[in-house]
Amino acid sequence: MDLSWSEIDLAGKIWTLPAARAKNGRQHAIPLTEQAVDCLRWLCPALENALSGVVFQPVGFSQLKAKLDAALNPAVSAGFKLHDLRRTAASGMAGLGVQPHVIEAVLNHRSGQIRGVAATYNRYS
């Protein structure tokens, strides 16, 4: 997945993934850590004048996966998919006690939506 400067709000520390590129077809706001913002500022020192274009574009997931597989022990990489990282993150958050609806929101799953009576009163999303 590529990242464009137009999707980044450094002041608000948010990366807004457009609906057209999101897995579920919905725009997704991704909070950025201070470290991520620092890295982005380092990539483009004159951000005020250059907030256009692509920040980075990966070579391609299949090429990156092949390099990762070559670096890993074959027993570890056998059957490993990049999507497994989402499962690992979700499992880790659950292990830390993160509420299921929060995990679903982090993964940008639609099932994390508030429905029914709660949706009638909670209009935040």
Could you name the key traits of this structure?
alpha+beta, 40% helix, 2 domains, two-stranded antiparallel sheet
What would you note in describing this structure?
- This protein has 125 residues and is an alpha+beta fold.
- The protein folds into two domains: 1-57, no CATH class; 59-125, no CATH class.
- It is 40% helix and 12% strand.
- The protein has helices at 34-43, 61-71, 74-77, 84-95, 100-106, 116-121, and strands at residues 3-4, 8-9, 14-17, 28-31, 54-56.
- A three-stranded antiparallel β-sheet has the order 2-3-4, with no helix packed on it.
What is this entry, summarized?
With 125 residues, the protein is an alpha+beta fold. It has helices at 34-43, 61-71, 74-77, 84-95, 100-106, 116-121, and strands spanning 3-4, 8-9, 14-17, 28-31, 54-56. It folds into two domains: 1-57, no CATH class; 59-125, no CATH class.
Overall residue-averaged pLDDT value: 77
Strand content: 5-15%
Terminal CA distance reads: 25 Å
Give the strand order of the largest sheet, numbering strands 1, 2, ... along the chain.
Answer: 2-3-4
Quickly count the helices: 6
Segments where pLDDT lies below 50 for 5+ residues? none
Structural category? alpha+beta
Topology of this structure?
Elements: E1 3-4, E2 8-9, E3 14-17, E4 28-31, H1 34-43, E5 54-56, H2 61-71, H3 74-77, H4 84-95, H5 100-106, H6 116-121
Antiparallel strand pairs: 1-5, 2-3, 3-4
